[in-house]
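The methods section describes the discrete structure representation at length, but only in general terms. An entry of this sort, consisting of the sequence and the corresponding backbone structure tokens, reads as follows.
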Amino acid sequence: MPDADELVANALAAVRGTDVRQAERQLDQLMVGTGAADGTTAVDAALLRRLVRGLSWLWPRGWQPVDVDRITCRRLDARAARLVRAAMAAQRRDQAEPVPAWWDDQLRELAATEGGADGSELTGWASREGLDRADALRAAVDTLALVESLPPIAVLRPPPGTSGAALPRTAGTARSGSPMLDRVRALLAKAESTTFPAEAEALTGKAQELIARHSIDEALLAAGSERGDLPGGVRLSTDTPYAGAKALLVQEVAAANRCEAVWSDDLGFATVLGWPADLVAVELLYTSLLVQATAAMLRGRAERRAGSGRRTKVWDESFLNAFALRIGERLRTATEAATEAADQAAAETAGAERLLPVLAARGEAVRERLDTLFPGVTRHRLSVRDAEGWSSGTSAADRASLDVGGARKPRQVPGRPGPR
């Protein structure tokens, strides 16, 4: 009789194949276990052991806990993601090498900080999910197959156990509890809750103005540092529906905040590279603007001419693409206004030579980081398939002037390059 590790390996190989009957036979073998008195317990332990090992292989390959959780939800379901969290907790419990604080922060956010002390994660998970043994084993094998199939991705931060010399030091995360960020969050929360589009856009514009000024202050403070950090990165979800439009919104928000964005369509996320304060800004703005864009899109749908015969999906996509491009223009206007004001203030204090060279050097560092992590990145162009949706999306993003330096006349740019 095969041992527990062999049974798991056979079931995994069968699930990866195309013979459904063979996969079911191997799952039946897992149900039976090794034939010993503790055969089913041994199978559970072998499954958990292999899942933990699979996760440990992902960390040096660029994956972070939040990334694995997101793609498990995307490709399988929330139930499978909760199994992965239990396995993460088990791995963390037994991890001997140093673990950075940000890693534990991610595990806490995922509620993946407690595991069964006796290795009973699989049994406990099945019980919490209300699964019988057959369904639990099937879900566990599917989850293991996914974890072991994930490709390498860009290493944004040194993973647990990595020595300081193994990877270049990347900049950390900006202070999440700063008064400025609290003000930005409050402005964006109001923008999301208001039913008046003009007020929402004015609030978002004010938030971008604060963010831009804070970014400039952080850049000047860092200019005197000798740390030699590299820009960092974050990954933002671009799940369906309208994944391309979401990726475009990420790109536009990133560009307005001196960051670079690369979309990994097959993995369901966009990677944003930049300096800490700018990355926090991009994440806050993208999350808020996605809510605002969706609300505007739903209002636009209701206002469409009855019986137009146009497909809703095509209209929605055109609307969201236009919204993203126009919002990007408006955010850049706010950033440019804040930069100009800061430059003038620097000139008045005889420090005009400091600001622009510092910003230019930081921008060049971000582009170099992009070229290092994504040497084969490509661009593609937008195609507008619904002129009415495009016009409505542009109008939705352009109803009010942002009080951060004046409004600009909207430009129709259907041929502008899309997300990279």
The chain has two domains: 4-149, 179-396. The CA atoms of residues 381 and 416 lie 6 Å apart.
